[in-house]
Structure to design on (224 residues):
């Protein structure tokens, strides 16, 4: 199984901050990686697929980068609506998620 | 507009079999590269992919749960059914149905909380 490790587990930030979340795979997954945002009591929402492709309708302050085994999700100018938990997901071999990164208010 | 809805019991007893149905609209499982999957999330914990079924009836299962899972599709009804045998309290979770597009989960149902308790 491919293991996905996100860091940090929790991140405290302020509105307007630039936030970076890292996701590392236990082996190369090429660029077969997606990012999701989940708010309490709600289903996750797709933000990015193929490591860096932004889903239609997702604000451009979200961006993804990386390939191989290391990836990042960056949120430029954090907005109040962005406080949530973020998950990465690999789909190179079956499918596994990271453990999540909670972005909360500093 | 693509919508999905999960249905099934909210409470099952230990050792029982869980059957969940995903009813979806706005997309066809006859479309190449499209699939339907089941994801679960125990309270306060991370997401876990359980099973996927694709347009060509290819099926993938979580390696650790494969022996307990069966996923089937009824394309005429736009439904996908997941069965999980020998339920245990650790299987208490919100179960989500998703549309799979080339590997990523493009659309999600609202989820259904299933509790396992005697």
């Amino acid at each position: 199984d491919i293991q996905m490790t996100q860091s940090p587990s929790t991140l405290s930030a302020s509105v307007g901050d630039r936030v970076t979340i890292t996701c590392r795979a236990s082996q190369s997954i090429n660029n077969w990686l997606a990012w999701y945002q989940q708010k309490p009591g709600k289903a996750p929402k797709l933000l990015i697929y193929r490591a860096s492709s932004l889903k239609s309708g997702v604000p451009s302050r979200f961006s993804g980068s990386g390939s191989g085994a290391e990836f990042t999700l960056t949120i430029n100018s954090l907005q109040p609506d962005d406080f949530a938990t973020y998950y990465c997901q690999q789909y190179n071999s079956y499918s596994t998620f990271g453990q999540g990164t909670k972005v909360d208010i500093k | 507009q693509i919508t999905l809805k999960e249905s099934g019991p909210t409470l099952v007893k230990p050792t029982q079999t869980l059957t969940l149905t995903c009813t979806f609209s706005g997309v066809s499982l006859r479309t190449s590269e499209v699939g339907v999957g089941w994801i679960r999330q125990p309270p306060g914990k991370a997401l876990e992919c359980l099973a996927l079924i694709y347009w060509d009836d290819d099926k993938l299962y979580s390696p650790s749960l494969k022996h307990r899972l069966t996923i089937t599709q009824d394309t005429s009804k736009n439904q996908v059914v997941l069965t999980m045998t020998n339920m245990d309290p650790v299987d208490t979770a919100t179960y989500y149905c998703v549309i799979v597009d080339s590997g990523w989960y493009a659309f999600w149902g609202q989820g259904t909380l299933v509790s396992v308790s005697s």
Chain B has a mean pLDDT of 95.
